[in-house]
Amino acid sequence: MKLVVMIPAFNEADTIGSVIRDIPRIIPGVDQVEVLVIDDGSTDSTLEEARKAGANKVIVHIKNRGLAATFRDGVEEALAMGADMIVNTDADGQYLGSEIPQLIAPVLNKKADIVLGDRQVRKLSHMPFGKKIGNTISSWVVRRASGLPVTDAQTGFRALSKEAALRLNIISDFTYTQEILVQASDKKLAYAEIPITSMQGPSRKSRLFSSIWSYAKKSGATILRTYRDQKPLRVFGLLGGAVMLIGLLVGSKPGLNYLETGLVSPYIPSAILSAVLLIVGFQTIVVGILADMMANNKRLTESIFYNIRKQTYNSRENK
Known about the structure:
- It is built from eleven helices and seven strands.
- With 319 residues, it is α/β, with parallel strands linked by helices.
- It folds into two domains: 2-229, Spore Coat Polysaccharide Biosynthesis Protein SpsA, Chain A (Alpha-Beta Complex), CATH 3.90.550; 232-318.
- Helix 7 (177-186) packs parallel to helix 8 (212-230).
């Protein structure tokens, strides 16, 4: 059983060394622990500090590509390294390496494919109030979209089984945190979370978003896009049904008047608007049906991709 701990890093020279050294290399139930650092275009000495601290492998993005791309590349590289489990942690020292054994326990015990470390955000004295509100709202939206009992959707401290790593496909260019959870629900992956300790990281402006509103906009778009792609018939069906219902309500007076008098003339604008809404609603439902057919093809493609990845990585391990 091999565990790869992956650490996305961008200009984290001051903390990356201590984060790597804090990772336990002997864990009950795990035969081998390796550390993978993904240097996302750092302009400081992050790369050198990571190697000096004992990272088993470092991959480098020449240019900063963002958190989602860095996470995606890290998962692929961890699988190539022969990982049976993958832990993602932050390079700023926010999470404790000593809590990795608790984090991976549900995966080791075959009780979960994805485990999130719950920072218990409401209790954090060092997290700004605005971020707490944003985290709470985001976690609520993810719970509604995924159906999973997610408490802390934004946490970067999470464990994946090999099966989960093979099945998940990160599409977003912004962040992976919410997309993974919506996909996990759709792919029927077992979910768990454990309470963890969250340390205060370096005091600095967020590198992921310029403001809480910017983050809300981008992360909301990511959740909606992922949910739309996973359940298009539900999304377009509800939207089209709502438009058609409004069309029926708008057209109720012209309809009743026509039944009583045989005339629509007093309500011609309402009748036209009703007809337009009914047509648009019907077309939206048709789009949903077509999108659902495309989603089925996407699932088939992902299944083929999963089998190819599985065979590829298994063959590498057997060499």
